[in-house]
Backbone:
């Protein structure tokens, strides 16, 4: 099944998080690179490695940080601080996450959604859905 016939959120979970055994941040960034044709190479994708598990300390969820990395590639031409767009995109994305879960922290989300069989699949899937929604909402501002 191609990504066009499979939902993006399903692809992020099944093809990247599970099949490739990537962490949450890596899975979101790799799936977004494929979905939005970002052209990120292996070295660029490895930059997400340290963000899984809330940067390994239960801080901000890696699925969220991986999504922010992907959105940065879509909305930033050269430097994020050249304009307010990236702050607006992030604000909207995190606002939606907080509305859904009440937290953006891995430690809290793992307590609620992690299980041994599926690990954090639900969180990865939901973040992929939100990523797609926010990209669509700001689509007229995309640089890629």
Residues:
């Amino acid at each position: 099944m191609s990504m066009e016939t499979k939902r993006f959120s399903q692809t992020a979970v099944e093809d990247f998080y599970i099949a490739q055994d990537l962490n949450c941040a890596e899975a979101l960034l790799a799936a977004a690179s494929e979905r939005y044709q970002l052209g990120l190479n292996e070295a660029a994708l490895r930059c997400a490695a340290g963000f899984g598990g809330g940067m390994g300390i239960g801080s901000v969820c890696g699925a969220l940080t991986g999504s922010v990395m992907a959105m940065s590639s879509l909305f930033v031409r050269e430097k994020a601080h050249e304009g307010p767009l990236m702050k607006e995109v992030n604000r909207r994305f995190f606002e939606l996450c907080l509305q859904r879960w009440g937290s953006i922290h891995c430690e809290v989300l793992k307590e609620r959604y992690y299980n041994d069989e599926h690990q954090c699949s639900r969180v990865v899937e939901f973040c992929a859905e939100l990523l797609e929604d926010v990209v669509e909402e700001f689509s007229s501002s995309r640089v890629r």
